[in-house]
TrEMBL record:
NCBIfam families: PRK06349.1. It catalyses: L-homoserine + NAD(+) = L-aspartate 4-semialdehyde + NADH + H(+). This is Homoserine dehydrogenase. PROSITE patterns: ACT (PS51671), HOMOSER_DHGENASE (PS01042). The keyword Nucleotide-binding does not apply. Pathway: Amino-acid biosynthesis; L-threonine biosynthesis; L-threonine from L-aspartate: step 3/5; Amino-acid biosynthesis; L-methionine biosynthesis via de novo pathway; L-homoserine from L-aspartate: step 3/3. SUPFAM superfamilies: ACT-like, Glyceraldehyde-3-phosphate dehydrogenase-like, C-terminal domain, NAD(P)-binding Rossmann-fold domains. PANTHER family: HOMOSERINE DEHYDROGENASE. Its EC number is 1.1.1.3.
């Protein structure tokens, strides 16, 4: 059979890994596919010492690749929005299939890109964009396609998980660990995407569409990062039997779906609690199968290349029958009516940390406010005065309540004369049900 000819645009962390793995596993891949995968052209502004492109057709203009009639599949690995979108749409207009690792592009412009691809009868695949090397999209839209997905929760940003793990285990300062993640090639070009939860929200948006059959709603996802997390809260959470994780959670509710990314306390005994470093994991609950868990490296050169190349092989298998491909977001009919719930409509348990004056009756006043708002306390801990300011920390875990009710209670608590500064609120999820 004729080889499948790919054009790779971008020769950074993922691009170089893709070239390396395609070259290294060339024979194994050909045996799986029944035809070989050839790198027809590479579009890169400069060489990358991490991969050897000697003898390969390298152009400095990525649009040469999108316009090259000998390229069957364009692999977009440049990242970003505008140029990447233009590149992908040009390739589609030229009848090429597209494989991308760019979750930002898919989450924010996917509806338009998939419409263009449908028009041209080509495939756009993006497995590498979600949870790095883990075949999470494949599991969700193929392996679990018999199920009504109830919810999913994932550690879906390797950089963020790496930072939280290093802070907890080594007490390393946030900025130092972030720099390390950048040097290891885990972080986005703009690392605020990682630490402020934007990258995780991109991935969650894509997962939710594949789980519930809804359009991509990145603009409605609630996003909260990890930059305000302190070692003190990580320590208190540990003492209470929890681990701090940065989770993306998508949950089906009677009146819509929750779509939220935020720091979350999970029970220390839960499997997700032991997902450390750059590793990612996605837990999915389907009505037929129950819970399934997918674990693996969430970022990195070869690990991400693994998912990019799996997509190339999937596309290659469908070259003669692209309409047989799974719908781009897993459902042929997308439900436009299911709303994404605003954050004050979610239901959750909470960790609250209050810095209070060490006076008789404070605890009573605090618990009275929770009680008259109908908030049930699950655990309560008072820590000794630390700063010599005559104050103590009170840490409270609550049972599940509506976020809007918790908002009201926090406002009332912050108005107490005993409470100093803002109350720290971290959502808690037991990941059961
Ligand atoms: P890098 O910054 O390492 O690589 C991007 C490459 O694209 C660079 O070589 C850059 O060239 C090149 N590039 C950017 N714009 C252009 C352009 N206009 N013309 C030619 N070349 C261009 O990024 P990554 O490899 O880390 O990420 C690539 C994509 O994969 C992103 O969408 C990212 O979100 C995604 N991703 C990354 C993962 C990871 O672990 N790193 C994991 C999963 C997904 P130059 O060096 O000259 O700027
Ligand atoms: N910056 C991303 C992360 C890369 O750290 O998870 C993988 O998508």
């Amino acid at each position: 059979m004729k080889p499948v000819r790919v054009g790779i645009c971008g020769l950074g962390t993922v691009g170089s890994g893709t070239v390396n793995v395609l070259v290294r596993n060339r024979e194994e891949i050909a045996r799986r596919l029944g035809r070989s995968v050839e790198i027809e052209q590479i579009g890169a502004r400069r060489d990358n010492p991490a991969c050897d492109t000697t003898g390969m057709n390298v152009t400095r203009d990525i649009f040469d690749v999108a316009n090259n009639p000998d390229v069957d599949v364009l692999v977009e690995l440049i990242g970003g929005y505008d140029t990447a979108k233009q590149l992908v749409l040009t390739a589609i207009a030229n009848g090429k299939h597209v494989v991308t690792a760019n979750k930002a592009l898919i989450a924010e412009h996917g509806n338009e890109i998939f419409a263009a691809a449908r028009e041209q009868g080509v495939i756009v695949a993006y497995e590498a964009g979600v949870a790095g090397g883990i075949p999470a999209i494949k599991a969700l839209r193929e392996g679990l396609s018999a199920n009504k997905i109830q919810w999913l929760a994932g550690i879906i940003n390797g950089t963020g998980n790496f930072i939280l793990t290093e802070m907890r285990d080594k007490g390393s300062p946030f900025a130092d660990v972030l720099k390390q993640a950048q040097e290891l090639g885990y972080a986005e070009a703009d690392p605020t995407f990682d630490v402020e939860g934007i990258d995780a929200a991109h991935k969650l948006t894509i997962l939710a569409s594949n789980a519930f059959g809804i359009p991509l709603h990145f603009d409605k996802a609630y996003t909260e990062g990890i930059s305000a997390i302190t070692p003190r809260d990580i320590q208190y959470a540990t003492e209470l039997g929890y681990r701090m994780k940065h989770l993306g959670i998508a949950r089906r509710r009677g009146d819509g779906v929750e779509l939220r990314v935020h720091p979350t306390l999970v029970p220390a005994k839960h499997l997700l609690a032991s997902v450390d470093g750059v590793m990612n994991a996605v837990l999915m609950e389907g009505d037929a199968v129950g819970q399934t868990l997918y674990y693996g490296p969430g970022a990195g050169s070869d690990a991400t290349a693994s998912a990019v190349i799996a997509d190339i092989l999937d596309v290659a298998r469908l070259l003669d029958a692209p309409t047989a491909a799974v719908a781009p977001l897993g459902f042929v009919e997308s439900d436009q009516q299911i709303p994404v719930l605003p954050i004050d409509k979610i239901h959750c348990s909470y960790y609250l940390r209050l810095h209070v004056s060490d006076q008789p009756g404070v605890l009573t006043r605090v618990t009275e406010i929770l009680s008259h708002n109908g908030i049930n306390i699950d655990a309560l801990m008072q820590k000794e005065v630390r700063e010599g300011d005559g104050c103590a920390d009170i840490v409270i875990l609550t049972h599940e309540t509506l976020e809007a009710i918790m908002d009201t209670a926090i406002i009332e608590l912050e108005q107490l004369a005993d409470v100093t500064g803002s109350i720290i609120r971290i959502r808690v999820d037991h990941l059961e049900m």
